Amino acid sequence: MRHVDSFEIQAPTPPSHNGVPRSAWARARRRASRWHRPYTAVLLLLDYGAAALASLIAISAFDQAVSGFQDADEAWFKTVAYVLLPLGWLIMLWANGAYDRRYLGLGTDEFKRVVRASVTVMASVSFLAFATKTDLSRLTVATALVGATILILVARYFARFVLHQVRKRAGHAGHRMLLIGTLPETLEVYTAVTRSPSAGLVPVAIHITDGYAAVRGIETPVPVHSGRDVLTLVREVGADTIAVCGSASAEPGELRRLAWQLEGTGVDLVVAPQLTDIAGPRVHIRPIEGLPLLHVEEPTLSGIGWLAKNLLDRIAAGVGLLLLTPVFVGIAIAIKLSDRGPVFFRQPRVGHEGRTFRVWKFRTMYVDAEDRLASLVDQNESDGMLFKIKEDPRVFPVGRFLRASSLDELPQLINVLKGEMSLVGPRPLPADDGDFLGDVRRRLLVRPGITGLWQVSGRSDLSWDEAVRLDLYYVDNWSLAYDLSILWRTVGVVLARKGAY
């Protein structure tokens, strides 16, 4: 920069990228490959091994598949089973995007693509067998193909588990993000992406668009920059992903030009809209006259899926009560031996659409617990509507075990059978705390659950605001598959006894 006649003249800047396509060979090496390429190599080996193992299991189980072959035919058959078929699996998995780094490590898209690839493999094998009139044991082929699908899914599940552990404990194998937007918007996105370390999204810097004045007196978790060249800043902080937050792209053409600048740099560009806590199935991009509009569908709180949820609740509750009868008897005896009084504890709770019901639980406190509550109010460790103390003196020893193992919640199957609760849903809150105000009322759109998103995300260790956020997220994004996922995660949380007291 130089001064001429008291006017500031900037040195000429190089022309910005105009979006003209360049050769793919000129693209820079992707920063994400530091973790993605070795992880993909591991997946390739696991998938190949799973497909070959499925063939081995099928052939071993049905020896007649190769018993009638001559030596040459048998060698060719085994070459197909152990070499060509597994290679075909890898090709189909690759063609269906099962190795695309955007879908690895998070969400269900990776597993959906594996299933899609398995359908393609099955159709291809069936067509080839029909076209070549190959005499094969249908049972052997079916066992090999279905077995390969299951083994590949299991192998990828454990590979993802290891990846998540690496991200949680070592902080590696993640995406380094530069957040761009106003300070409130970027901080909101920062909070959202750092809630789950296993997601591998690590914000390393913020580039604000509203000037440094917005940062005065505010502590920020990462360094804040303003008025910088984005590409230069990306190189300085070592980011591989740029997240445009909220209204940072309000100026027409700004986001498009940023995308042009990033071509060939190996840096990903993502847009974080202001619609937080809205799951993918409810969000659809529908272009109208070249303008991509983001449509948000209403939550699905009725229909066939909702009916299936209710039927599943009633059937599972009835079967569970029958199978758990001996457990109920044993717990009842233990409670009676620990403290004289009723076996069950019943308390009014607020349910679906504000209706009050009495929840069933095994009693875990001494009979005079309510009388001693007033003297313990100042020791409350919860910041919300529930009273929680980690070392509550009103809980007797057996009750402490029941709480830690969540066995005290089992009688709520009675509430589920009666239609007052569900297996999965927001936790039921006491009815003596007055009317629910503000966003908390939205929880009443669904039945409360024995387990829920808050229970598999920290339980009593969560703050009240975080628990409410998780409950509202469940209400807004409910699905039958999501319920099954929460039930599966509940098993691990109960075994680990995390956040239960």
TrEMBL record:
Residue ranges constituting the Bacterial sugar transferase domain according to the UniProt record: 309-495
EC number(s) recorded for this UniProt protein: 2.7.8.-
Membrane topology: Multi-pass membrane protein
Bilayer-spanning residue ranges: 39-63, 75-94, 114-132, 138-159, 315-335
Region named Disordered: 1-23
Organism of this sequence: Phytohabitans kaempferiae
Protein name: Sugar transferase
Localization (cell): Membrane
Signal peptide extent: none
Name of the top EC class for this enzyme: transferase
Entry-linked NCBIfam families: EPS_sugtrans (TIGR03025)
Family under the similarity heading: Belongs to the bacterial sugar transferase family.
Keywords assigned by UniProt, alphabetized: Membrane, Transferase, Transmembrane, Transmembrane helix
Chief localisation class: membrane
Molecular functions per Gene Ontology: transferase activity
